[in-house]
Amino acid sequence: MKFLILCTLLAAANAAPGFLHGGYGHGGYGGGYAVAAPAQVAVAQAPAVVAAPAPAVYAAPAPQVYAAPAPAVYAAPAPAVYAAPAPAPVAIAQAAPAVAVAAPAATSYSTFSQVRG
């Protein structure tokens, strides 16, 4: 228990230094006598970081590219092709062959095989 009380007093002294001794105008436990404020800790300023400007990068202009005009392509007219007229087809008309044998006439007494002949 004594250890916890000691830890509490140390924590209070770290949180508000001088209050336990009556400093800073508070009544405190010290009977109200004034105690000098704790010395301010001097914090040195961080050194200034000087950022030098980036060196200029010289970008030379791109070289001029010479594009020669495309050579002219001469298109000669197509040569005339002589087309002779196509020969007329010769049509030979052939007469239909004459029927040499007449079909037998069917009679009421004929059979199919006789008529078919």
UniProtKB/TrEMBL annotation:
Residues of the signal peptide: 1-15
- Give the protein name, as stated in the record: Cuticle protein 16.5
Keywords per UniProt = Signal
Organism domain of life:
Eukaryota
The protein's organism comes out as Hermetia illucens (Black soldier fly)
